[in-house]
Each structure stands twice: as C-alpha cells, then as structure tokens.
Design brief:
The chain has six helices and seven strands, in the order αβββαββαβαβαα. It has 191 residues and is an alpha/beta fold. α2 packs parallel to α6. The chain starts with a helix and ends with a helix.
Length: 191
Amino acid sequence: QNAQNRARAILLCGHQERARGPDKEQKLDIACGVSAFHGMAAIYVDADACPVKDEIYKVARRVGMDVFVVANSYIRTPAEPRIEFVLVDAGPDLADDWIAERAGPTDIVVTDDIPLAGRVLEKNAEAISPTAKVFTTDMIGSALATRGIMEHLRSFGEATSGPKPFSPKDRSAFLSALDAAVNRARKKTDS
C-alpha cells in the first residue's frame, strides 16, 4: 500500500524511485511513453487483468522492444531498463487514455478492452488480446455490439459465462500472435 501511495506521489515524467515491494525493493519508472530506442516499436500493456505479462517480457527481451506496463494499482514488473511500470490515477479509462495518447503506428497494444483497441487501431498501431485475438478495424463494430448485448442481458439478471480458465495452449497462441504483431510492427518501422 505504501508503494502505491509513494508511486502516486511521484508521477513525474521519467522520474525513477525505489519503492518497497512485498519482499524487496523495486525500481518504479514513471514513463513518458517514448521508446528509448529511436524509431523502435514499443509494447503497451493494459495490465490490470493481463494474464500474459511474463510472455510479453520474454518476447520484448528477445526482440529488444520497450514495454510500458500501465495500471491504476501497483504491479510488480522486472527491474529492467526496457520494462517500465506506469501508474495512472484510479478512474475509468485513465490507463486506456494514457496508452491511446502514446501508441503510434509502429507500436503494439495488448488489451482485452475493445474501445481501447479501436482507439489505437485508428492510430495504425497493432492491437491484440491476451487470448491471441488480433483486433482489426472491421471487427471492432461487431465486437462492441456483442459487448453491448451481453451487458444488456446482465442488467436483466441473465447469467452469462465469464472467460474460460487460461491454459498453456492459450499462452502459446498468445506468443504466436505477439510474434506476428512484432513482425508487422517491424515492417512499419522499416518502411
């Protein structure tokens, strides 16, 4: 709790602090959202409920991309120069706003949030879900309509099923989807 409060108090662009984590100190980088490697793509993670953060770190290390882990509460991230934790204030869509304002054509956004995916696709960024769904502009409208129908049913007390448990097969599918997104982002960087 103290780490969260301390991090909230130091929300300055590029500021680095040490915060006491559950079992040791961890560096918190409050990021500007600009990749340290000029012209290189970055991966933005809508991190509050993202089950594939470790897979994202693995791919980012391998290909040399920066990762911005964005959440409205403290999330432990590896203390590495290319992995930055960004703490935004609590509130609806503040993490989404932070990501959407910074994502560009060579970037990848990992999110389950359909409106956020739509916003970053408008900026020509890649958008994929933790379940390996590659968002496209063609699918956003129907996905929003389906989401609206499900919310409407729940408002009437209709029992709807939640997401299925995440399996090793799901993680593998996500890694493949992320690798493909990295390749598409690199092609944009090269052109």
